[in-house]
Each structure stands twice: as structure tokens, then as C-alpha cells.
Amino acid sequence: MKRHLLFLLVIWAVVGRVTSGWANSILIPMDDQQANHLKAYGIAYKVLKDDQEVDWLLNYRGGSFLIKQTSAFETECRVRGVSFEVLSDAKAASLRQQLADPDLNMNVVTLQKAAKIIVYSPIKVSPSEFENTDAVLLVLTYAEIPYEVVYDEEILKGELPKYDWLHLHHEDFTGQYGRNLHRQSLADIKAQEDIAKKYGFAKVSQMKLAVAKAIKEFCAGGGYLFAMCSGAETFDIALAAEGVDIVGSSYDGDGVDPDAQSKLDFSKSVAFENFTLEGDNGYRGYSTFSDINSTGGRGYDQPGGFFELFNFSAKWDVIPAMLTQNHESIIKEFMGQTTAFRKSAVKPSVLVMGEGKTSHRYLYGELGRGQWTFYGGHDPESVRGGGFRNPTDLNLHPHSPGYRLILNNVLFPSARKKKRKT
Fold first, then answer.
1. What distance in Å separates the CA atoms of residue 371 and residue 319, rounded to the nearest whole number?
2. How far apart are CA 51 and CA 284, in angstroms?
3. What is the pLDDT of residues 199-247, one digit of tens each?
């Protein structure tokens, strides 16, 4: 009896080893077979947070993920409603070999460490109801990816180097409070004025410039910057207008420098050049900031078309290939205070990753040792008439290709960075 029991234990041990060898990888598909694309990114981030690696399979089934198989990760996928497949050692090795084929536009990029994520937002210091609709805050929360919130004071105190990834949404770095009271409340404005006074700035515009310069320095030092909507536009305007008063009297009590336009220094901006500033329409007008915005003058315009993601080489243009992974290449356009970027205002050095018929929507660039991405529009699933203060319920949009672009950027800093060849 004892010999029989011992024999069974040995057999079970052998079978256990064989079974674990047959099934030690989890494939998280990102094509149409995925039940929840957005939460899949949260699984990938959690694996990285647990000090495990994630293989990002570029251009394979919509940019799928391959991770080490554990019962904990399987449970996490089930709990979050994320589709997965269990692969044997042999099948996982065969898949990697397939993606290495030089004739296929596919690749494997290993993600190694979870990025420390922060969001620059006035919710740190004021009610800021408008921030309730910030697409990045919404999708990070939905995907269950942890983040911290900072605002002007933390940046002025030099805290940015503690983090890897910084997001700016619809902030106004020119000190014009979004150019209308629909964007920022009186409480939001007072909070900014109080910080400016505390740090010895005579105007909010001067404080915002200092913040913008610190963010640019963070990026040049190796950080990753992701900006959307007017955050991208006003960041560059503020940098180009350093030392020039471009703020009208309705915002700070004194007038604009009459020669402001001719004094702009486009060598200081990151993505845009040769743009023309908009006039001062006061607090309550739906005014845009400049003609960087391709829908300038129409405020929260509702475009009715689509924009297209470019197809990059997964082996040679690895960075843009990562940032454009998706199960759809044609994406519905969406509105914003800065809806899209006028093509002639984009610097030649900038890489365009997505564009519509008349504008660029999705841009990438390198600055010093860091990288940045600018993404036009406010909310990839916004609906005209629903009210811009109404947050999108991402439970209704788990497959959103527009939101996937945001999450591509969240994972990007975890990769071994490679320079583009072209």
C-alpha cells in the first residue's frame, strides 16, 4: 500500500511538472476576441508592478500581451473581465519565433518596470469640476492603474524627478484661465492666484511659465510627457512667449504687448511653430488660444469624420509602433477646446502618428533624453449635446480605440527604448 501511494505521488509530481511546462504563459489577446481592451492594460501594469515582465506583441492580434502564467494572474484576469488564453512553453516559443521573422511586420518588446505615474490637475487644490471629464483620469481609474495627482506647487518645489510619466490635459499654461469661465470656476482661479502669490510671482501667467519650463526640463532629463487638448497647445504657447505679455487685461489687469506676435520665439516650443495668437475675447467667450487649433474660432467643435493611425515598422520604428497599437486603425474624431493640430503649425522634426483629412491628431517627439506625445481633443468617446462636464462611463466603451492610444502611452516608458531608424 505504501509503495502504491509513493508511486502515485511520484506520478503526480511528474504530471505536475509536465503540466506546468505545457501551460506557463498567458496570452492576453487585443483583437476583437478581447472582452475588455481597456482593463487589459491594467492587467499588464499590475504584472509589471509585481516585478514581472510583460512581452508586448506588436502587431500581433491588435498588440497582445504575453505574461508568465500564475494562478494569481489568471484570477486577476477573470475578476476584471479580461479575456486570456493559456499557452504551453512550446507554443509560446513558437509564437516568439514567428514574430521574429524579418518578413513579418511584428515584434516582441519586453516591458520591465511599472512607470510611476502622475497627473497634473487642479483637483489637487480646488473643486475643478471640469477635471471630472479628464480622459486620462477616467481611463487610469477604469483600468485600475494607480497614479498620483500634482499641481503647480509640487512642480515648483522640484518634485517631478521622482516620477516617470506626467500627464497634462486641458490646462491653460498661458495664465488666461482657459479663456472663459466655463472652463474654470472662480474657486479654481483663486487657487492658482494663491499659489502664485505664495511663490512670489506677480501674475499667474508668470507662475505658469515657470511650471511649463520645469515640465520641459523634466522631459529633457528623461521623463515622459503626455498632453491632450489645450494642455498641449498652451504648453507650447507659454514656452514660445517667455518674457512677452500675451495675457489680456480681462485676465490680469493690464494689456497685451502690442508686438507680442512678432516676439514669439518658436525655438523654445516643443511641437509647434509659426502660429498666430488669438485676440482677447474675455472670460465668457469660447475663444481658442491660437491657430494651432485647426478648429479655431469654433470652440467646442464637433467633427464628423475619422482620423487614421499610420502603420509603422514594428522592427525598425519600434516606438511609434508601440504608441499606435490598436485593434482599429481608423478612429472616430472627437472634440475639444483644442480639437486637432493645424498641419502647417507642426514642426518638421515632429513625428505624426495619426491624422485626419485637414489636421494632425496624434504627435510624438523626443526632447533631450525624454519623449513626449500630444493628442488632440478632450474625450475620445465624448458626444456633442451631452455636456462637456458630464464624464464618460467607460463601462459603455471597454473597446474604445481612442482610449487605447492613451493607455499605449502609459505602458510605453516600461519598454527598453530604441531609437527610430527613420
1. 10
2. 50
3. 999 999 999 999 999 999 999 999 999 999 999 999 999 999 999 999 9
Instruction: Give residues with Cβ within 8 angstroms of 132, minimum separation 6.
Output: 389, 391
Which domains are present in the chain?
Answer: 2-111 (3.30.70.790), 117-414 (3.40.50.880)
| Rounded Cα–Cα distance for residues 132 and 122 (Å) | 11
Yes or no: say if 218 and 211 are a contact pair by the CB < 8 Å rule. no
As given in the structure block, the three cell numbers for residue 264 are 514669439
pLDDT tens, residue by residue, 11-26: 333 333 333 334 699 9
Q: Nearest to residue 382, comparing CAs of 166, 19, 133, 197?
A: 133
Burial class (CB in 10 A: 0-12, 13-18, 19+), 381: middle
What is the DSSP-derived secondary structure letter of residue 225? E
d(CA 261, CA 79): 55
Instruction: Report CA torsion sign: 95, 96, 100, 106.
Output: positive
Distances (CA, A) of 3 to 7, 10, 15: 6, 11, 18
pLDDT band, very low/low/confident/very high, at 371 (cuts 50, 70, 90): very high
239 within 8 A of 204, measured Cβ to Cβ: no
Q: Among 243, 331, 350, 219, which residue's Cα sits nearest to residue 292?
A: 350
Query: Phi then psi for 236, rounded to 5 degrees?
Result: -70, -35
Distance of alpha carbon 324 from alpha carbon 155, whole angstroms: 30
Q: Which residues contact 215 (CB under 8 A, 6 or more apart)?
A: 120, 155, 160, 166, 168, 225, 235
Sequence-ordered list of residues with C-beta below 8 angstroms from that of 374, at least 6 positions apart, any chain: 227, 228, 232, 271, 341, 362, 363
SS3 331: strand
DSSP 259: T
Whether pLDDT at 116 is above 90: yes
| CA distance to 113, 115, 378, 401, per residue, from 410 (Å) | 12, 8, 17, 15
Amino acid at 210: A
pLDDT band at 129 (very low <50, low <70, confident <90, very high): low
Strands 117-120 and 165-168: parallel
Helix, coil or strand: residue 363: strand
